[in-house]
Amino acid sequence: MFSDVAIMNRIAAWVAAISMCAIGWSLFAWANSKNVFALRQIAVTAPLVEVDPGLLESAIRTDLRGTFFTVAPHRVRINLKKLPWVREVVVQRRWPFALDLKIEEYKAIGYWGDNELLSDRGEIFRASSRAPMPRFDGPPESALEALVRYRESKTALAAVGLEIQSIAMSSRGALTLGTRGGLVIELGREQFEQRLARFISVYSSWSSAQREGVARVDLRYKSALTVSRIGTASQLSQGNTL
Description:
By secondary structure, this protein is α/β, with parallel strands linked by helices. The protein has helices at about 1-35, 55-65, 75-80, 145-160, 190-205, 210; strands at about 40-45, 85-95, 100-105, 110, 115-120, 125, 135, 165-170, 175-180, 185-190, 215-220, 225-230, 230-235. About 35% of the residues lie in helices and about 30% in strands. A hairpin with a 3-residue loop joins strand 4 (about 110) and strand 5. Helix 2 (about 55-65) packs antiparallel against helix 3 and helix 4 (about 145-160) packs parallel to helix 5. The longest helix is centred in the first third of the chain and has 32 residues, at about 1-35. The chain is elongated, with a radius of gyration of 32 Å. It starts with a helix and ends in a 5-residue tail after the last strand. Residues about 20-35 have low confidence and may be disordered.
């Protein structure tokens, strides 16, 4: 008898629990259908520098459909990442009616070819900019290496008053630098550090008059370099002057 009563109590408890769940779900479904949980606030958690506010707002209005419970953060993330300058997006719900967007922008360090930009992480991305930055050219797979070489060269050349305007890397990895003064520096694809150091050593030994009019310095030699002026060229051994 006692066992039968215990079983009946358990069944009743289960029925009550199921009923409460059903009622709760019905209330939730009703409230959701009436937009009780509609999103009322969408916040970008960090200030944006490059992303166009108009494009962002348009994308948000298009993609952020649904309620606090039905909106799909993964879909929102994928679509917002298609916007220019957007590198990464983190979408988080904030109870009870808000959605937070953490948008990470690309940081451009230069132009890549004619239509793209290069990020400070060596990533090629498509966006527009008018900022004064150097131009990079080369196979897409060489982007990271080109960035590393650029940073090393930039520091070294700044010590002798030169600023890089362009950096090109061939399909074989040969490196060519162009400066804002019009000087072209051929470093080739081997012994980058040694050749750069050789150029700095020779260039720093020249007077202002000797530097004037130098158009190209070719360091793709074991113990010499070629200096080209406008209309002329001469070959120098290590340690010689113009």
